[in-house]
């Protein structure tokens, strides 16, 4: 009995496959016999679009269209089929209301021409509105009845790859189009992700298509916070109701039949077209509405971040005269720097021309405004290459540019070139503009002398062109001590993908000083490369032996050991390898060998854990003679093994050992002059260093006058971190507009108090951020509108307090803390049917408390803090 059942299953499966093959042949081959001429197939037609937030169990919004679809077959031969389609008595119903209303749709018929089942030509009434035309494009797209494997086709969704599963199912993927302007932010951590599924299903017999169902599901979200996003579902279905006989056309060829049937129509593309609605808001007036929130005291808060996003879209459509009027208005004097931030991200010809009309690169009094504009340009995720070319020409043309502006311009051009090169639309090999920028930086480095070379080395760090690596390696071997430090920093920025065997050999020579004496910062940077390049067991063992060696510089050894521990805390495999080396070495497997003997630290602490990404705080402090020589506080996002540095605060100092009177170090100072300053890297772009003082005289002037004893802003800016504008073409003929943006309002302030009499000092570095992400997903036509808006916001802060006591042995206490904050998430939904005078709104607000933290640094620091505050 069992064998009979198996034979029966094999037989029925074979028959099913054969019938599927016959259907495929009839649909895709030269004997397409669906819709025979002289017949009208009557279908029940339904089409819907549903929008919702990512969170489950929330209220959906959208609409349902339904009516009757008549498919009139006017003419047919073995290859060609001419169909005239018309929608009868269409109605529309909002998702949240059971009542439906008459749909004000242009009811003129439209024509499709099939060749072997595939749509070859498409004709629409000239007088139809865009929304009606798109709806008809969506209906026509159902009749792409070509099922050849590996084919591609064009319909209302765009140009799509198609895979067929027998005859009943067709899957569409990788639909693309390039006729609509878009700003796609595809960064793997900060960008926007769109996941799409498109499936068409068919049922029919020999001559009648019974049903066609088209289903789509799209998920749009921000990579860093996946609950900030939207789900879009659309469905279109036709169900056969019956067939009636009509008069077929008598024509010898398809051309003759078409000339008669489509004489009042115009040929069109199946791809939907956008109905552009102009923004009539004036930039000048809108600035006036939010001017108060743009003032300096609101930087670092949500208020200014929201105002920034509200103005950005208006700035992108504003005229040159409107922008110029705004910049020259006396009412905007106190917020003009923030306006230059906004215009730097607008990236339009009008915005750039208005700025260049107002500011002059060779004017000393415009320095602050120019720098803010250039910084915004350099942080942008979508640089305008025409603006970049204009700035490059000005850099070459003007010879009297103030030093600060010139440095910022060089660094900005390098950053813009790197962003353009990473966009896949341009590269250093084929783009003339990018090649010219690289050439200008290399030539500037070759001709500059002494400290003037430093800015070009920092520019190479921003540029990250692989062809400059040999130049940087040359500087490692023949440059000055400071140049060597900057070259190591630039090479580290490239990432381990570009760290060759020769470069890692140089790193070993530098750390262990096998060739010559090196600056301590060069040595610690070389150690970073060795540790981050997936070191072999031998390399790791050498690093541990160095940390346990008789090297007189305890801080270098302590830095290396702390860095090894930090890597071990992050990577389990690395930690296993480390423990194995220590366990099998008598020299290392004891407390005294690796006991802490310095103040330098390297640590990584988690600042938040989310479903999408994790955030970490990396703090590296290289100490020399009791003073931070090189300090770095780095905020990093991690996702699936990928890391992105959002913000890096660097502190540098030199020539200050005499002020500590410490006898704990035997090293002499490398630097002749006292110097201290701060460096910032935002979104991978380093900006011009800020020098607090240079020389003992200037330092003592600050000490005596107390100029830094009050909290003082060091860097303020509005920064666009997410920027995605796009359209999603649905198969049923609707266009979804996608607009996702994220902004940071940034304020970095600090103060320092020094007492010569008590021989101590206290400093505070305070970072305040207002972060807002706003998204709008909408379908907006003449007869229906569905819109979902979401917003996420938070105001995190980070404080670094440093207390130093030089009265006896040097004691240094560092405290890193993050106060409490609140994450707020709001959602607004709208359904509107203008023709039916229907509108309904929904709103939802959520909040989540984020507890603050005080981060433990290391045991040595804890002991020193106890001594200072005892």
From TrEMBL:
Keyword Signal in record: yes
Gene3D superfamilies: Lipovitellin, beta-sheet shell regions, chain A, Vitellinogen, superhelical
Biological process, per Gene Ontology: lipoprotein metabolic process
UniProt cross-references to InterPro entries, sorted A to Z: Lipid_transp_b-sht_shell, Lipovitellin_superhlx_dom, MTP_lip-bd, MTTP, Vitellinogen_b-sht_N, Vitellogenin_N
PROSITE patterns per UniProt: VITELLOGENIN (PS51211)
Domain Vitellogenin as annotated: residue spans: 34-632
UniProt KW Iron-sulfur keyword: no
Localization terms from the record: Endoplasmic reticulum
PANTHER family according to UniProt: MICROSOMAL TRIACYLGLYCEROL TRANSFER PROTEIN, MICROSOMAL TRIGLYCERIDE TRANSFER PROTEIN, LARGE SUBUNIT
Official protein name in the record: Vitellogenin domain-containing protein
Species: Ceutorhynchus assimilis
């Amino acid at each position: 009995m069992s064998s009979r059942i198996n034979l029966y299953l094999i037989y029925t499966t074979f028959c099913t496959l054969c019938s599927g093959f016959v259907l495929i042949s009839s649909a895709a081959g030269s004997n397409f016999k669906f819709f025979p001429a002289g017949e009208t197939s009557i279908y029940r037609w339904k089409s819907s679009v549903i929008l919702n937030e990512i969170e489950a169990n929330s209220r959906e919004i959208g609409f349902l269209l339904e009516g009757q679809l008549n498919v009139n077959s006017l003419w047919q031969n073995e290859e060609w089929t001419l169909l005239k389609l018309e929608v009868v008595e269409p109605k529309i119903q909002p998702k949240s209301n059971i009542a439906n209303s008459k749909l004000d749709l242009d009811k003129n018929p439209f024509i499709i021409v099939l060749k072997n089942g595939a749509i070859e030509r498409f004709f629409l009434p000239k007088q139809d509105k865009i929304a009606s035309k798109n709806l008809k494009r969506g209906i026509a797209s159902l009749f792409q009845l070509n099922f050849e494997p590996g084919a591609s086709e064009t319909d209302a969704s765009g140009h799509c790859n198609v895979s067929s599963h027998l005859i009943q199912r067709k899957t569409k993927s990788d639909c693309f189009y390039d006729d609509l302007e878009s700003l796609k932010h595809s960064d793997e951590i900060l960008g926007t992700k769109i996941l799409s599924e498109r499936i068409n299903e068919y049922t029919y017999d020999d001559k009648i298509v019974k049903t066609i169902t088209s289903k789509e599901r799209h998920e749009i979200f921000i990579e860093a916070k996946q609950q900030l996003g939207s789900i879009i579902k659309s469905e279109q279905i036709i169900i056969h109701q019956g067939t009636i006989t009509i008069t077929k056309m008598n024509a010898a060829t398809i051309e003759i039949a078409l000339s008669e049937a489509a004489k009042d129509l115009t040929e069109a593309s199946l791809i939907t077209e956008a109905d552009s609605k102009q923004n009539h808001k004036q930039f000048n007036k809108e600035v006036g509405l939010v001017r108060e929130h743009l003032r300096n005291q609101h930087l670092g808060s949500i208020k200014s971040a929201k105002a920034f996003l509200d103005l950005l879209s208006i700035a992108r459509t504003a005229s040159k005269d409107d922008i110029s009027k705004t910049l020259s208005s006396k009412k905007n004097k106190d917020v003009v720097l923030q306006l230059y931030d906004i215009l730097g991200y607008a990236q339009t010809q009008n915005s750039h021309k208005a700025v260049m009309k107002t500011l002059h690169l060779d004017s000393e009094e415009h320095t602050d405004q120019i720098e803010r504009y250039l910084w915004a340009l350099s942080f942008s995720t979508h640089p305008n290459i025409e603006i970049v070319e204009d700035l490059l020409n000005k850099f070459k043309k003007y010879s009297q540019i103030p030093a600060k502006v010139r440095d910022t311009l060089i660094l900005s051009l390098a950053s813009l070139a790197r962003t353009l090169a990473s966009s896949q639309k341009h590269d250093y090999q084929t783009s003339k503009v990018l090649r010219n920028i690289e050439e200008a930086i290399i030539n500037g480095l070759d001709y500059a002398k002494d400290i003037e070379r430093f800015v070009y080395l920092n520019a190479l760090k921003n540029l990250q062109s692989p062809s400059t690596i040999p130049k940087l390696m040359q500087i490692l071997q023949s440059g000055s001590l400071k140049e060597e430090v900057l070259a190591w920093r630039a090479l580290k920025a490239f990432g381990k993908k570009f760290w060759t065997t020769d470069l890692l050999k140089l790193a070993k020579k530098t750390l262990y000083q096998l060739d010559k004496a090196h600056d301590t910062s060069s040595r610690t940077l070389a150690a970073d490369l060795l540790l981050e390049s997936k070191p072999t067991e031998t390399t790791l063992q050498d690093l541990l032996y160095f940390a346990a060696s008789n090297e007189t510089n305890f801080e270098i050894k302590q830095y290396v050991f702390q860095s090894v521990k930090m890597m071990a805390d992050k990577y389990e495999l690395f930690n296993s390898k480390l423990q194995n080396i220590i366990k099998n070495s008598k020299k290392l497997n004891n407390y005294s060998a690796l006991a802490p003997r310095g103040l330098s630290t390297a640590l990584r602490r988690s600042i938040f854990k989310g479903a999408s990404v994790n955030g970490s705080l990396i703090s590296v402090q290289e100490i020399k003679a009791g003073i931070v020589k090189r300090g770095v506080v780095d905020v990093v996002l991690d996702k699936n093994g990928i890391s992105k540095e959002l913000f890096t605060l660097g502190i540098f100092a030199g020539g200050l050992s005499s002020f500590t009177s410490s006898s704990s170090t035997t090293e002499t100072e490398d630097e002749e002059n006292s110097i201290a300053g701060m460096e910032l890297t935002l979104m991978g772009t380093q900006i011009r260093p800020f020098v607090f003082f240079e020389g003992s005289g200037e330092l003592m002037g600050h000490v005596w006058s107390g100029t830094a004893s009050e909290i003082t802003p060091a860097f303020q800016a509005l920064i666009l971190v997410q920027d995605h504008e796009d359209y999603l073409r649905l198969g049923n003929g609707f266009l979804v507009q996608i607009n996702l943006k994220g902004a940071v309002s940034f304020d970095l302030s600090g103060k320092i108090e020094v007492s010569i009499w008590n021989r101590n000092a206290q400093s505070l570095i305070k970072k305040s951020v207002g972060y807002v992400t706003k998204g709008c997903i909408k379908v907006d036509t003449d007869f229906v509108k569905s819109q979902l808006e979401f917003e996420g916001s938070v105001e995190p802060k980070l404080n670094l307090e440093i207390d130093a006591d030089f009265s006896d042995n040097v004691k240094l206490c560092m405290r890193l803390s993050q106060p409490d904050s609140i994450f707020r998430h709001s959602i607004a939904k709208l359904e509107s049917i203008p023709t039916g005078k229907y509108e309904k709104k929904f709103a939802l607000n959520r909040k989540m408390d984020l507890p603050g933290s005080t981060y433990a640094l290391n045991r040595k620091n804890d002991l020193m803090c106890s001594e200072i505050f005892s």
